[in-house]
Amino acid sequence: MALTGLEIYKLLPKTNCKECGFPTCLAFALKLAAKSAELSACPRVSDEGKAALESASAPPIRLVTIASGEREFQIGNEVVLFRHDKTFFHQPGLALRVKDTDPLDKVAATVAEASVYFAERVGFCLSMDAMAVENASGDAATFAKCVEVVKANSVLPLILMAKDPASIEAALAVGAGSKPLIHAADSENWEAMAALATRAGCPLAVKARGLEELAVLAEQLTKAGVQDLVLDPGARTPAETLAVFTQLRRLAIKKNFRLLGFPTISFPGEGAESAEQEAIAAAQDICKYSGVIVLDHFDPATLYGLLTLRQNIYTDPQKPIQVTPDIYRFNDPEPNAPVMITTNFSLTYFSVAGEVETSGVPAWLLIADAEGLSVLTAWAAGKFSAESIAKFVKGSGINDLVERKVLILPGMVATLSGELEEELPDWKIAVGPREAVDLQGYLKELRRAIKETPH
Fold it and tell me: Has domain 64-313 been given CATH number 3.20.20.20?
């Protein structure tokens, strides 16, 4: 059971030293009870107090690592039901499943293609996280050979899927140096699977039909020494998966039910009749609340959509992704090149930067600090005003770099042009297009006009 704020308070030093960042020990205790603070913030708590408070300070969902060499991903360690309450910390891993009944050359080609896939979005590289290998043949040697082919064509962490412990053991023998997720322990094989997972130091998925059986198995496995568990409640349809995953999350977060305080794994393809249905179910699993999503189809276009959704959901809503405010140069600008300004919201920057670079027109781009907000949002919040823009321009050093002092505003905030002319009397203020996609044509026309203007 979770400790109350008063119970935690009794175990704290009660000095009210404020070194934890809170005004009193009681305030800190209440934050600990609400999972809104870390015990490590208190430098004066005794060793006895630390031991007693361990369960109160530990995240309600255990952090589990799946790795292969230098490649790894982590799941779990979540503390809220809704990301706007705080944020989601560890995005779900996306895995592609192959079966040992498939021809090995087909397995090799599929794995190689999926493993090297990546897309860059707002400065981040989006890619697959793992490869899942299923022992569909039921034969340990066939399974081990398939795992060997997968490892030869991918550096991604593995998910080993087999009912027979002997097959898992054979696969582990060819996967030395990795920390795969073993799937899965059930009511019949849990003792042998627990022994394998403990010996190999691997996380173990536990599969059961229903939460009660899942909790019983989780308790048996933790008592057997397996601490890193991943829960598979057996749900396969979207409706069933949504219901049971939400129940698991609520039990862990709201009730602090430790036996089910582990990340989950889902298989959206098993309840789908097509690749499109699998993609829809996978999108739901990203939002609610899968830790590992095992796909049965690989399509770059579909995968990009899922990776983009995942990035959006697992971005801290209170800390938008942003770039460093600075002067950015494109296509080797000279002193008479056009000067543009926008906010440091990452999506805004990369949209504008991509169009400017593709245009081939030399240009200067000023990125002003707007706390990571988009142009309109920053303008509405007073973070991208004539005063703040003028202050940034004056302090950026752009005055010393250009001769042609014409500042191009985003078309969305054309209303700022009059005020900005008063704030920057040495500059002429121009208004650019409303959308980044129109920048190429705008800049090319502007370059033509500059060349035709007599000096």
Answer: yes
Q: How many CB atoms lie within 10 A of CB 320?
A: 19
Q: Measure the CA dihedral 194/200/206/207, to 10°.
A: -100
Q: Where in the chain is the domain with CATH 3.20.20.20?
A: 64-313
pLDDT of 280 > 70? The answer is yes
Percent of the chain with pLDDT over 70: 97
Please classify residue 370 by burial: count the beta carbons closer than 10 Å to its beta carbon, then call 0-12 exposed, 13-18 middle and 19+ buried. Answer: buried
Contacts of 366 (CB under 8 A, 6+ apart): 327, 328, 339, 340, 341, 342, 392, 393, 396, 398, 407
The one-character DSSP state at 435 is S
Structure-token pair, residue 412: 């969305």
Cα–Cα distances in angstroms (integers) from residue 73 to residues 19, 238, 245, in the given order: 33, 25, 21
Separation of alpha carbons 13 and 25, rounded Å: 8
Q: Which fold has domain 5-57?
A: 3-methyladenine DNA Glycosylase II; Chain A, domain 3 (1.10.15)
3-state secondary structure of 201: coil
Tell me the per-residue pLDDT of 9-29, one tens digit each, with 9 for 90 and over: 988 999 999 999 999 999 998
